[in-house]
Amino acid sequence: MTGGKDRGNDKDVTIKQGLRQNLSQFVILIVVNAFVSAMIGLEQTVVPLIGKNEFTIDSNAIILSFIASFGLVKALLNLYAGALAERWGRKKVLIVGWLCGIPVPFILLFAPDWNWIIFANVLLGVNQALAWSMTVNMKIDLVGREKRGLALGLNEFAGYISVAIVGFTTGYTASVYGLKPFPFYIGIAFAVLGTLLSWIIVRDTKQFMLLETKNYNNHHYEQRDTQQQAQSDKAGNMPSANANFTFQQVFAQTSWQNRTLLSASQAGLVNNLVFGVSWGLFTLYFASFNLNVNEIGFLKALHPAVWGGFATWNRLIERPYWKKEFDLHWHDCSSRRNLDCAFCKFDVGLDNRYVFAWRRDCPCISNITCRY
Fold first, then answer.
1. Cα gap 207→314, rounded to integer Å
2. In order of start, what are the domains of the chain with their CATH numbers?
3. Most CB atoms closer than 10 Å: which of 113, 196, 214, 368?
């Protein structure tokens, strides 16, 4: 516990990490994350069918180009989201993400050709890279190290259940009223509500991250001698703990030099690849059997629904049974070259299907925890 200024509310308050102590803000962030994910659900069922039916595009590759534009932009911005959060604060990055997301449903609704759909997904990639990542980091900031698994599980649960519900809802709406315009009215509502919640109610959590970093350094690294650190570094195939890591060093470690992080990258690649396939190809595949939009929406909803349903259970059991942890001390935590979270995970690989990327914003994947 420590006294300080809550920058998100601009008041002098005493802050303390923990789910119970910060429950209201935690719940608000879950709701915001559900709205962020709803922007993906908006496209799951309807957009591929618009390409096929409204724009009469015969090439599946051209139709799926909207997913490529989304993945490319999101992966690139994931490289810099953490640095932006460190410089601007998490709340400001979250709001910028939402401001980029507001035009998306309008462009999808009024797009005169497919190029506008691709442009809308460029904006959606910005929205997801900034807004999704910040909601994850802010939840971890609030609950601290002991409950971060639960925080991530609830984040995944809210996100993918939202994708499932909105994907099914838009499919049903399209089956009754047509592919346009009513399904996109739902997206407009989510974008406006998410922006307002993030701007008015959500508070910045950077002070919680700084508190956790301070406590961890005070109680842990002061007790470690040079020999223990050297043995740990050798075992983990990592550079010296006192090094001020450059972007290139972190990229090399997390991409190929450290086998454990490499395996996590490959797992993230496969995970995102499956989601990309289900996003685009499944819709067109189901449509080839002459299923109606409502039936396609139901089938498309099954994948994110199962994903979200198992997410919380997986995060609850991972700590005692599954997760491999690395202790890493990052010298000079205020440095822009360092990761911006006190307790974080790396997500490296062909992020979002297309780009080899290192996430500085620490959206915490799989089972690798890097503590510094």
1. 29
2. 2-371 (1.20.1250.20)
3. 368
